[in-house]
Each structure stands twice: as C-alpha cells, then as structure tokens.
Amino acid sequence: MQDEISAFSIARIAYVGGNDEAFGALTTAFADAGYSLVSHEDALKADIGLIDLRGKQLSSKKAQAVAGQLRKSSPDSSILILIDPYIDATARKALRRHGELVAMLTKPEGLIERCRQVLRLRNVAEETGERLKSLATISRLNEFPPIAAPATPLKILIAGEAGPTALAAINALNPISEQCVCVFSAGQALRAVENTKFDCAIFLPTRDNDPLMSLARALRRHPKHASMPIIFPLADPDDMANFAPRGASDFILTDHVATDLAAKVQLSARRTRLLKTMRRFLGACVGDGVRDAGSGAFTANFLAEHGARICARADQTDHHLSMIVLKLESTARDNGEPEPGRRALHQAARLINRVTRAEDLVARISTDTFLVMAPATTEADATKAALRIQGVIENTVFRSSDDELLYGIEVDIAACTRPVGLCIEETVAFALTVLRDYSDGTIAAK
C-alpha cells in the first residue's frame, strides 16, 4: 500500500495573458485561498483557464484562439476572462462568447469567489456523469430521473433602494422575465422569497452593514434557497473584496447593468436549474442492488463498481479524494425492546444522506459502518464535514418502532485522504484502518 498522500491544491488554474507582476500577485492570492495558479504552458489537467486581457488591445479572435488552446490542453476546464471595467458593451458581448467575464482592477477576491462557484458546478456535473456511466454499465435494474432543466419563464427579485441602478435593472430584466418583483428592504425581500420561488435575485446594498448582506448570507445557508443566484451590482470592482467574504457570490458593475445584466441573469438561472436537476438525479438513483432499503445508502456492491470509477478519475485529474468513515452505535435510554435501536440506526443513517453534499457517495459497508467518498475535497474539509455529521446525529433523538422508547446515537468518525494509486478495495481498507486507529487512540482526533 502506498503511503504517499497527494498534496495537490484544491484546484489548478491555468493563467495566460498577463505580465509577470500580475501573475505573481494572483499566484499569491490564489495560494492563500488554496488554489494553484500555473502558467498556460502547464495547463494540462487544469480545472479553470484564466485569460487576462486587462490593459491589452481587445480582439475576439485572439481570445477565441487562446480559449481554444486552453481547452485543447485541458478539455474539462472552464474559461474565465479578466477584463478592464471600462471596455465598451460591443467588446464585452464578443468576449462573452468565449468565456465568463470578470471585471477586476487590483483586488482578486471577487475573481476567487467566481472560481469557487464554477468549481462547485463542475464537481456536481462530473459526479453526475460518472454516476450515469456506472448505472448504465451495471447488470442490474435501476431507475433514475431524466436530467432536463425546465424552460419556464424566469421569476426575478430586485431588492434595494430606488435609484438609477434599480431602474436600469428593471428595464433590462422585464423583457426576459415573467415576473419581476421589486422590494425596498431586506424584510420585504425575505417575505417575498418565502412566498415565491425566484430563479434569481438582484440585491442593491447601499452600505457595508446593509441588512441585505445578512439576508444574502442567510439565504446561502438555507437548504431551500442556497442554490438561488444573488447578483450584486457594484460601482467599483475593488468593492468585491468587501462583499465576497460576506456571502456575495456574483457581481456586475453598475455601468454594465443596462447592457449585460439580462444575459448574466439568464446564464445564472439556467446553470442553477441544471444544477438542481443534477442534484435531484444524484439523490434519486435507485434500483436492485444500488441502494440499501433500510438506510437509503448505496450498497457495497455498487460502491465496488462506482468507487473504482471515482478512484480512477481522481488519479487522472490529480484531484483530492477524501473519505469519511462513520460507525453508528445506538444507546437505549429505556429498556424493554428486544433489538434496541435498529429503527433508530436506519433513521440516523438516512440523516447522513441529508447532511452530505449531492456529489458525495454514501455507502453502507457493514451493519453499522458507513463510508462517505468526497471527490475534490481536502482532508481538512472532510474532517469538518465528519464533525458536522457527528454533531447532527448525536444531537438528534430517535424513537423506536412503537414510538415509546427514545434512543441516542453515538458516532465514531475518521476522515482521511486516499493515497494516490489505490484501488477501491485498498481504499476502503485504508479508511477502516484509520477509523480503527482513531478509535484505539493511535491517532489523535482532529
């Protein structure tokens, strides 16, 4: 068994077009965020291609050629294009055909947040494709919903004080939306979100401590509204550095609202609808030998087949593949049931699926032991996820089959990163060894 653990960054970003000073500044900023920025000469296996056109004479054909070269080196990479905020609408429209535009001056926090959102979409799409391949190749009957985004008209929320930006947003969005709701405060926006299902929201905060910022952060943490894109029009690109750490994930300059907002909203809404469809597909895959009837987790047989595909994909892309092992033990708070905690065990196991992400693979490998495979996740993030799962289960009270006895569930957890090159059988054995070492105290809990 190999002992070397992959020390790769969260993502690999290929950079082309800027000078050495810009490359150095972005390299430091991305490294602080956990990403690796490399030259376009090392674009192989890049997750994102970043084209810097700031301060250059713009040419759509040149951008197309550079984007084509990046995609040739790394076909799976997404393209982001850095532009100056003052370029005209015609040039922006031409460049938008080749990648997503990000206006930036000196502070890269908004760019890093956009990269983070693109990677999240990529991870879900990648697991959807691999899961579909596994379901198509196994020799068992299985069922899964179709992957098709709805084409219903858009419903958009605009929240903020009345002014030129709000008026420009209304004029830009009315032709593409079925319903465009305008409110003036965070409280009105909250009530609107609770009563109507919006495809996208435009927030217009007027100060740093605007309640709309708190509402945006709360919506991102809410399971029902987390996927709704929220766009912040800003007057200065450097203001993204203040808004990005506080829940904002997408931005547009106020000078670009009249010409670019409609296209941006349409793209964000379509991506969100597709993302919801893929997550629904990942959570609904069922069939003979695919999911365990009691716990709702995937069976060991499906883990052996699909896990091999995940391990091979991780080696091909140089991505992290972390694992979380959970051992559940039910403890009766009363006596009198012949099999204490069996129903509670199944209820706790189903909580694991609700707490983990859609792209994570939750499999039952024994009666009370579950394995979570988390693609493109570092060991530190996997440890945080394991502690979250442990906290949710251990702070939940479960009932017996006759609803008379109460049970608590104790969870032993361990998180680790898969060593490069291990097959799925060796990977599961390695994870169980780590769990045993944690339980015995050989490894101190993190």
Automatic annotation (TrEMBL):
State any single GO MF term.
diguanylate cyclase activity
Span-the-membrane segments of this chain are: none
Instruction: Tell me which InterPro entries the record gives.
Output: CheY-like_superfamily (IPR011006), GGDEF_dom (IPR000160), Nucleotide_cyclase (IPR029787), Rev_trsase/Diguanyl_cyclase (IPR043128)
Q: EC number(s) of the enzyme? A: 2.7.7.65
GGDEF domain location: 319-446
Print the keywords alphabetically: Nucleotidyltransferase, Transferase
Q: Superkingdom, according to UniProt? A: Bacteria
Q: What Gene3D superfamilies does the database record attribute to this sequence?
A: 3.30.70.270
Protein name as annotated: Diguanylate cyclase
Q: Which organism is it from?
A: Hyphococcus lacteus
